[in-house]
Design goal:
Chain lengths: ~800, ~200
Amino acid sequence: MATTAEAVEREQKLQGVGCSRRRKEDARFIQGKGTYVDDIKLPGMLFGSIVRSPYAHARIKSINKAKALAVPGVVAVLTADDLKPVNLHWMPTLGGDVQAVLADKKVCFQMQEVAMVLATDRYAAADGVAQVEVEYDELPAIVDPHKSMAPGAPVIREDIADKKEVGHGPRTHPNHIFTWEAGDKAGTDAVFANAPVTVREEILNPRVHPCPMETCGCVASFDKVAGQLTVYLTSQAPHLVRTVVAMLSGIPESKIRLVGGDIGGGFGNKVPVYPGYVVAIVASIVTGVPIKWIESRIENLSTTGFARDYHGIGELAADKDGRIQALRFTALADHGAFNSHVSATKFPAGLFSICTGSYAIPKAYCRVDAVYTNKAPGGVAYRCSLRVTEAVYLIERMIDILAQKLNIDKAEIRRRNFVKAEQFPYTTALGWTLDSGNYRAALDKVLKAVNYEALRKEQAEKRARGELMGIGISTFTEIVGAGPNKACDILGISLFDSCDIRVNPTGSAIARLGTMSQGQGHATTYAQIIATELGLSSDEIQIEEGDTDKAPYGAGTWGSRSTPVGGAAAAVAARKVKAKAQKIAAHLLEVAEGDLEWDVDRFKVKGNPSQAKTMKEIAMAAHTSNIPDGMEKGLDGSEYYDPPNMTYPFGAYLCVVDIDRFTGETKVRRFYALDDCGTRINPMIIEGQIHGGLTEAYAVAMGQQLVFDSGGNILSNSLMDYFVPTAVETPKWETDYTVTPSPHHPIGAKGVAESPHVGGIPCFSNAVVDAFAHLGVTHMDMPHSAFNVWKTIHKLGLDKHA
Amino acid sequence: MLVKLEKTFPIDAPADVAWSLLQDIQSVAACMPGAQITERVDDRHYQGQVGVRMGPASVTFKGTIEVQSVDATQRQLRLVGKGADTAGTSSASMDLTASIRSTADGKAELTGLSEVTVNGKLVSFGGRLMGQVSDQILTQFGENFAQRVLAQGQGATAQQAAASVAAQPREINALAFLWRVVVGFFKSLFGGKKPRSAG
């Protein structure tokens, strides 16, 4: 910490941690100079377009390519039979299952990949797709997961019908994927049996989709002479994908280069490996010609990385004062036709067991049953790939339901149950050790800011007049930064992340990381971390990610892990550089290392501040002979960081809604969001992330849903039907913060991007339900569209004109 | 997607006349807009096709029609049509129960009860119009049928009806049809009878 005015000025020049400096990447974005995968154009490139199943469940009787091959410009039509010789008609998923790359005799969801047409341009490819004749024999489809495990239900996955397990423990039905549980079932049941008060509610997290602005796609280019494969790919985890490609193709991993480039939003949608990528890669390997495949919007919404579809049952047991004694949550998880949910080996249901939330709950038990249905695979996405949204939604809804049952104020019941500031680190009944928090302070700050008491008074007056006004509170705890290597892995690879820093002689630096920005501003944030650690200007620190030939191995960016893991790696790598710099400084100043102290951008001799060496001077010296005997040249440092714990950001949100009692139209009057993500690296970027996350929370709570009819036909796979809020619909966000640093993170930072999504969704629902609480309504499933809200209004008879 | 519809049409002819036409499957099929029988397999089985345009989706369904039952005492006919479009992107089936009833004035009325199930691209692209489109198809069917019955009679009315039958388009006229769908949609919004859509 700089003390003198002069030092403060030097510190400000670095534009390091705490500075709301402009984002480095925006110069190219606002000029339209970003390079996205569809901007990649290689000589001789062919375009792939996918023939998809019109049916949710059917046998393929025949595929006739003849007419398609006659379309001018069409070069080839690939089907499962063409991939069989290279054994790539099926691929492993990141969930321990297998997935058909191109349908092998059978389709299990509507829009499933059946064939790929390769043509000289994308229009010819589309014409070819329309001419591929596929004969189907329709089968009955399972759309409702509650019917998946019924006796005699149609078997969706005949390929694994006899398998006793698919990656995660024993199966009890051909459509069963896994059952996962955590906590003390017997102990929890015993508390419930004797509890003074219990509440129970069925709560749905509907199937939604993050709908990133850029759809998924790739350009695969195989150099037959060098035996090298280059894939430009919309991937949030390029290194993991490279490993998967090496395993699948047999090409040495050193000859595979994945390039992420700029990515137009991921939100988990761009974590998995999709059939389109695999076919493009295989086609390029076979033909030696670059192949481009880019999804359409309809394909993106229909087939890639959906989110949620968790059919939950929440139960709480409490004493008469609303102090929760036990929690029992179960969920039926609809994973679609293949289990491609990205899951750490030990956590098939992700981090669902964070469902105790911000509350000190002595006993808890949770269980997730995952089943197959005739819908697209996924479950991985949406600003929280690891089921935290589902968990937090359950606890934040249930605590409101408990409050209503006991007629306790919804802020007060939270205060009574919070883990107290002095209890941290706090280990929950389901085994997570919350690193730090100050929940009550956060909530009290929000209540004061919005004048909560006045709002409740206004609500009482409005209720007396028959008007509908709701106040929603959400005091959530997130879990981000996967993850501690003992517990977390994907395909056996630990979820560490990495940073490799090289300082140039003139004192600028380049750092490469294993994460992958999709718009989060990594090039800025990481540079700020390193700037503060090394005393170099963040302007002169270049950040590179996503090119696997350049960057060190890492698990990528998802689950808000970049700051907790990648950011920690950057700080620790910088500290290694700094330690070496200190040795050089001691040598140059002819003092012992211990006689030096760090001062913003330089080492100075204790008690003699005029004797100092700046980091820039040290950087030059490191490349000369004027360094300690036996020391290596250069000023580099690298770190593969294994986080000792997850980070647990938290927040307190409050939402006020006014609902039209005739139309069901819900107007968000006010949304106040206080977030605590520990040390704040770039407050402007944090604010941007929170605005984005809240907007996506609003989207999910108020309008988004992937709707299927009983035949498994998707009815909401275009932007005519799928709600994406624009500035017109989006409420105004008021943001605030507290700072409770993480004790185990090198700079005390926690992830933040998921928080507003995870914490925002229940806040909207709580507000909408609160508007009807005085009429005995305890729960309303999302989305709270005007029509859905009106249904409640109509049922209650509130829409009758006097 | 499943759409259930029930409609009744007045017929300006005695019930027996209407019933005899109803048993002529080829004529019945010809009353269905855009439909035609391409082959008669036997008394109960026919092959045919239906052309439908719905927004950006234009499909020709080819399939089979099976007469499930002919009940002369009830003057009721039940048939099931099943088909898939030629590009293999959608499938449709229709379970139609048509019956003729005498009315008090010595005339008749036709009641059509249909259950249409459609799967595939047509639903994804045109799902929100499915109820209205099915409603219009059934309405046109009823009107065409009534005209055909009339055309079998004598006099000016019959001639007029015959001319109307002859002018009936062989494929659904997209624009005129769309207009009626839109009108139907607005009617349903403002309290008109809504087609029931399940699933």
